[in-house]
Amino acid sequence: MKNQTLETVLEIPEGISIQANGMTVELEGKGKKNSKTFTAQGVTLSVQGNQFKITAARSNKKGLRFSNTIYAHVNNMIQGLQKGYEYKLTAVYSHFPMNIQVKGSTVEIHNFIGQKEIRKARIMPGTEVSIKGKDLTVKGHDLEAVGQTAANIENATRLTGKDLRVFQDGVYILKEKR
Question: pLDDT for 76-96, tens place per residue?
Fold first, then answer.
């Protein structure tokens, strides 16, 4: 049986420019930039006009898996440049009120379950965190960075060694807007 190549094509919308240098894809649009480096083997990336082509050397399951993954990542990068991503979080506490502040590239959580220790969560580059009362909003154009920032904030208030049915304090992700 002869090996066949598998080619997947993604249409690039107007207002977004794309460059493929080896396995690095760089997108630019609306004054924002997004780039990602892929490590898939046997896959070549190219740009022809307003089309982004992903060519896998073999049309087996592995080649299909690599091309679909790259397609999904580039499609998410395009949607991020067009619309952006947003996560909504809320602070939940029963007795000790939490004080949450943004300082530089970290989110500081004071007075978590009455502790003197300040809990910190890292804000990934390209995302912004805004706080209004108990609600936090994480916005950005890179899905991975926005999701990781929301997860860092949620993980900073994770409790260990306590009964989670009793101690339900924390900062939790409510919804994700794509």
Answer: 999 999 999 999 999 999 889
CA 88, distance to chain mean position in Å, is 14
Residue 1, in any domain of the structure = no
Q: Is 114 left (phi over 0), alpha (psi -120 to 50) or beta?
A: left
Model confidence, pTM: 0.88
**Rounded distance, CA 170 to CA 109, Å?**
10
Note whether 42 and 108 are same-domain residues.
no
How far apart are the C-alpha atoms of 144 and 31, rounded to whole Å? Answer: 19
CATH of the domain at 98: 3.90.930.12
Residues 91 and 40 occupy one common structural domain: no
Q: How far is residue 116 from each of residues 55, 98, 106, 111, 112, measured CA to CA in Å?
A: 55, 11, 18, 6, 8
Distances (CA, A) of 25 to 4, 36, 84, 142: 25, 5, 18, 14
